[in-house]
TrEMBL record:
Biased composition (Basic residues): 1-10
Organism: Musa balbisiana
Domain CCAAT-binding factor: from-to ranges: 358-535
Cellular-component GO terms for this entry: Noc4p-Nop14p complex; small-subunit processome
Family matches, as Pfam families: CBF
Similarity field: Belongs to the CBF/MAK21 family.
Protein name: CCAAT-binding factor domain-containing protein
Biased composition (Basic and acidic residues): 467-486
Length: 618
């Protein structure tokens, strides 16, 4: 006979089942009751699918949050018993044995739990990725996912759940910045989270690379497929850029999210080829089995960091991502690679593109050349080609001109190369804004001071160029090369002509050594006072280094019309020009300057008109 208490609860259970069958909505109290029943006994295991149905971004926040907490509390103690595979069911024997019937039933129940846990995990991931989710619900869902990530077997990091999570983020069709803003500060500070982020991103990027590799630009279908890959590439870059590299000097103690962190099991997954590919072979032939060793962790993190970024740089990057990568490559990637020379192909290919992309690739390429022994014979030829009027108005012009000044600093630079850069800069001074002219004067000042062999460009009399290049007759026409009646060669063709060829791409063939810096003389009469004053610094004898000093290009590299005007307004003027008038003017212009026009006030005009009428009457 049923107890009275059970009789009182029975109608409530019938009402809940009726609501489920009819598709009616449950109240918050009903969900709490279902959650308490689920946690109290396995007899209420059928409450689990009901709670899962409310775990959706479209559900009311209170209901979704209550369902999430109840289901998480249910799965946490059972998580070690759930089969490790989240996608492939466990294989069971078709014909159960006599004594194994109960075991087979238990396996069926675990498989059912595994499927429900997969649905729960999918619901959590959808909440974190969806734009409809509120921040509070997204935050709780993210914490729930990461809690299961650290509940792997024997305290290991559950890389399968984390990989599934990142893969869904990359496949998102809407912006995931709110999620990444939560994920980065809260979890990327843990070393094992960074490690498995790089590992999973490397796998995800390679899968995308295989899809892109099959597509070509010749068909519309493949072109649309390539364009559809741009948004995932943006997400990949956002994840990698938000995951900070390992700074071994600053991070003395490595904080792990899971109990074991980067377990010794992961060491076995690293093949000898992988270990040698991005670091010195003699340092990685023997893998340290001590998991707590900081040097060992540093090597593993650097290896995964390099593999993830190299895989990403092999993708066809959108232009905006391409520029962002090049702008920060020398600060966020190169210093943390064990062997930065693996980026030489990417940087040289970017440097050969030309335009803004070459300007942004210059910084990283210069670091590889000066610090890692990269040989690039056409470096100065490409650098010379970047000097155009447009570069003086580019967004990244400040860094470019500072780097240009550094590249031309070596005393081993050939004289013809230094002369070519000085001459082209002086020619560009005629076509750039005042801020650009100030940069050019600073660069030429430093070139003349560092390379005394090109000081002849300041003043080169006619005829002296024969000692510095080819013969003068090579550039003359037949009539100019003939001797006149008095036996002297006619120099009419030389007067007023400049042998320098600014259109020549090869600095060695530009004839800069036979020219002069006559353009600098025109800057003395520049309309901008700052330019005309600054050019006077070139009048000093720059070969005497004891009496002169180099100009800091950084002080002028980020200049513009606004900065020039602001400095001119702040400047204190010692001598003020004075305008003297015998008679105080009553208008801006005098009537005699514009016949037929009058510029006085109306009262004076009427008086003048009346006076003229009186004269006519008399």
């Amino acid at each position: 006979m049923a107890s009275p208490a059970k009789k009182r609860k029975q109608p409530q259970g019938n009402e809940e089942r009726r609501k489920r069958r009819s598709g009616g909505t449950l109240a918050l109290d009903d969900l709490k009751a279902l959650g308490h029943q689920l946690l109290s006994s396995r007899a209420h295991i059928n409450n689990l699918p009901v709670l899962l149905s409310f775990l959706s971004p479209s559900s009311p926040v209170a209901l979704a949050l209550e369902s999430l907490i109840s289901i998480q509390s249910f799965f946490v103690p059972l998580f070690p018993e759930i089969p490790s595979s989240l996608s492939v069911p466990n294989k069971r024997s078709e014909a159960p044995t006599d004594d194994g019937e109960e075991k087979d039933v238990e396996l069926v129940f675990k498989d059912w739990l595994r499927e429900r846990f997969g649905e729960f995990l999918n619901g959590l991931i959808e909440i974190t990725v969806s734009e409809q989710s509120v921040d509070a619900l997204r935050d709780v869902a993210l914490d729930a996912i990461m809690d299961f990530v650290k509940l792997g077997k024997d305290g290991r990091f559950h890389s399968a759940i984390y990989h599934r999570f990142l893969h869904r983020i990359v496949q998102a069709t809407s912006a995931v910045d709110p999620l990444l803003d939560l994920l980065g500060p809260k979890y990327f500070k843990y070393i094992d989270v960074r490690y498995f982020t790089y590992t999973s991103m490397d796998k995800i990027i390679k899968s995308f690379e295989s899809k892109i590799g099959k597509a070509t630009l010749h068909s519309d279908e493949d072109s649309s497929k390539l364009s559809s890959m741009e948004f995932p590439v943006h997400i990949m870059y956002n994840i990698l850029s938000r995951c900070p590299p390992l700074e071994a000097e600053k991070e003395q103690s490595y904080e792990m999210w899971s109990q074991l962190g980067i377990s010794s099991k992961e060491v076995g997954k690293l093949s000898s080829n992988d270990l040698v590919s991005d670091a010195e072979p003699e340092n990685l032939r023997k893998v340290d089995t001590d998991v707590s060793s900081s040097s060992h962790i540093t090597k593993k993190i650097k290896l995964k960091f390099a593999k993830a970024w190299i895989s990403f740089l092999k993708l066809p990057l959108p232009v905006d991502v391409y520029k962002e990568v090049l702008a920060s490559l020398h600060q966020t990637i190169i210093p943390y690679l064990a062997n930065p020379s693996i980026l030489c192909d990417f940087l040289t290919r970017s440097y050969d593109i030309g335009g803004v992309v070459s300007v942004m690739a210059l910084n990283g390429l210069f670091i590889l050349m000066t610090q890692h022994g990269l040989e690039y014979p056409k470096f100065y030829e490409k650098l010379y080609a970047l000097l155009t009027p447009a570069i003086f108005m580019a967004k990244h012009r400040a860094g470019f001109f500072q780097l240009l000044d550094t590249c031309l600093k070596s005393s081993y630079l050939p004289a013809y190369l230094a002369a070519t850069f000085a001459k082209k800069l002086s020619r560009l001074a005629l076509a750039v804004p005042p801020s650009g002219a100030l940069i050019i004067i600073a660069l030429i000042h430093n070139l003349l001071r560092r390379h005394p062999a090109i000081n002849f460009l300041v003043h080169q009399p006619i005829g002296d160029e024969n000692d510095r290049g080819t013969s003068v007759e090579d550039n003359r026409s037949g009539e100019d090369a003939r001797e006149s009646d008095n036996g002297h060669i006619s120099l009419s063709a030389k007067l007023g002509t400049d042998p320098f060829n600014i259109q020549e791409c090869d600095p060695a063939k530009s004839n800069a050594m036979r020219s002069s810096l006559w353009e600098i003389e025109t800057l003395r009469h520049h309309y901008c006072p700052a330019v005309s004053r600054f050019v006077a610094s070139l009048e000093n004898d720059l070969t005497v280094r004891a009496k002169t000093s180099e100009v800091t290009v950084a002080d002028f590299s980020s200049g513009s019309y606004a900065t020039v005007f602001r400095e001119e307004v702040r400047r204190r003027i010692k001598q003020v020009p004075i305008a003297f008038y015998k008679v105080i003017p009553s208008s801006l212009f005098d009537n005699s300057e514009f016949p037929g026009w009058t510029f006085g006030n109306q009262q004076n005009d009427k008086q003048e008109l009346n006076a003229r009428q009186n004269e006519v009457t008399v």
